[in-house]
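Hi support team,

I've been running sequence recovery on a batch of backbones for a student project. Most finish fine, but this one hangs at about 90% for roughly twenty minutes before it completes. I'm not sure whether the input is malformed or the queue is just slow. I've pasted the C-alpha cells below so you can try to reproduce it. Let me know if you need the job ID as well.

Thanks,
M.K.
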C-alpha cells in the first residue's frame, strides 16, 4: 500500500519542483529521492518484473502530487489504484475530486456521443461508432447493415439533441425520420434518405 512521505508539506515548501517518492542510503546518508517536475514533462516509462513496485511507484507519485496541491488525472481500468488513492485525499482537497466509475450502477454516467460534434469530425465519429457496432454484432454484420447504419448516424449528427436512441426511430418512425432528414446538410446522406430508403 502506498504511503505519503512523512512531513509531505515540509518537503514541498523546501523543494516544490521535485516529486519525492523514495529514499536512498548512499554512503550511509539517508536522503529523499524523487524526479524533477521538468523531467516528468518529458514522459516516463516505468518497467520491471511483476511485484517489483511499478504500481506502488506511480501511486506514491500521485499521492505526492495531491499533497503538493497539483491536479492529477488517473485512468484505472481495474479500479484498485483509484480506490487506494481516494484514501489519501487530504480533507482540504476533497472538493477537488471528480471520480467516474462507469461500473457503478448506483451513480450512472450519462455520455451522449452524438452531442455537440464539430462538423469537421462527423465522419470520424460515425466511423468510430461503426467500428464499435461491428465488433459488438460481428455475427450479424453485413455490408448493407453498415451502409444503412452509417447513413443513420450521419443524419442524426446533423440534428441537435439526438442520441443513439434515435437510430431505431429513424428506421421505424416516418415522422421522426422526415424531421431529421430536413436538417441533413450532407447531400449524399440526404439523397440516401429521400431516394434509396424511401423506395
Amino acid at each position: 500500500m502506498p504511503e505519503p512521505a512523512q512531513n509531505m508539506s515540509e518537503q514541498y515548501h523546501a523543494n516544490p519542483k521535485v516529486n519525492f517518492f523514495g529514499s536512498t542510503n548512499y554512503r550511509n546518508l539517508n536522503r529523499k529521492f524523487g524526479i524533477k517536475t521538468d523531467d516528468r514533462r518529458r514522459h516516463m516509462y516505468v518497467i520491471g518484473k511483476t511485484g517489483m513496485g511499478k504500481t506502488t511507484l506511480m501511486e506514491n507519485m500521485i499521492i505526492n502530487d495531491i499533497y503538493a496541491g497539483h491536479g492529477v488525472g488517473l485512468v484505472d481500468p481495474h479500479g484498485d489504484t483509484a480506490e487506494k488513492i481516494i484514501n489519501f485525499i487530504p480533507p482540504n482537497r476533497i472538493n477537488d475530486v471528480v471520480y467516474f466509475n462507469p461500473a457503478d450502477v448506483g451513480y450512472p454516467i450519462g455520455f451522449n456521443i452524438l452531442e455537440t460534434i464539430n462538423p469537421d469530425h462527423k465522419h470520424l465519429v460515425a466511423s468510430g461508432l461503426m467500428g464499435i457496432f461491428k465488433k459488438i454484432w460481428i455475427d450479424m454484420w453485413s455490408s448493407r447493415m453498415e451502409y444503412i447504419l452509417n447513413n443513420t448516424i450521419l443524419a442524426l449528427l446533423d440534428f441537435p439533441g439526438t442520441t443513439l436512441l434515435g437510430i431505431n426511430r429513424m428506421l421505424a418512425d416516418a415522422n421522426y425520420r422526415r424531421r431529421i432528414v430536413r436538417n441533413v446538410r450532407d447531400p449524399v446522406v440526404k439523397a440516401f434518405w429521400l431516394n434509396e430508403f424511401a423506395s
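--
Follow-up from support: It reproduced on our side and the slowdown came from queue contention, not your input. Residues 8-96 form one domain. No action needed from you.
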